[in-house]
Amino acid sequence: MVVDLISQSGVLNSASSGLALAAHVTARLQRVDTVEIDMRSVVRVTPSFANAFVMTMLSEFPNAFPQRVRLVHAQELVDLAFRQAADRYARGIRLSSQAS
Fold first, then answer.
1. Which residues contact 92 (CB under 8 A, 6 or more apart)?
2. Is the pTM of this model over 0.70?
3. Domains of the chain, first to last
């Protein structure tokens, strides 16, 4: 199994940044089995970033988390932001650019 590592840091905000990370991860998943995103230096994640990233990944890879994409070393509140985005997706909430 081939694993790739991406590191993030600081405050992750804006939907456009979340979409950019999703595009980056999607491109890497074409070459590797799993992408780990190191969140140890992330201090906060906004809902718009988390929604854009998680919902885009789940629309492309329904079993993305945790089989193909793993968030590692995340602080509790950072992890919570991503889990809440996944919960919204599971409840049928989508990005405005996604079909319902």
1. 100
2. yes
3. 3-90 (3.30.750.24)
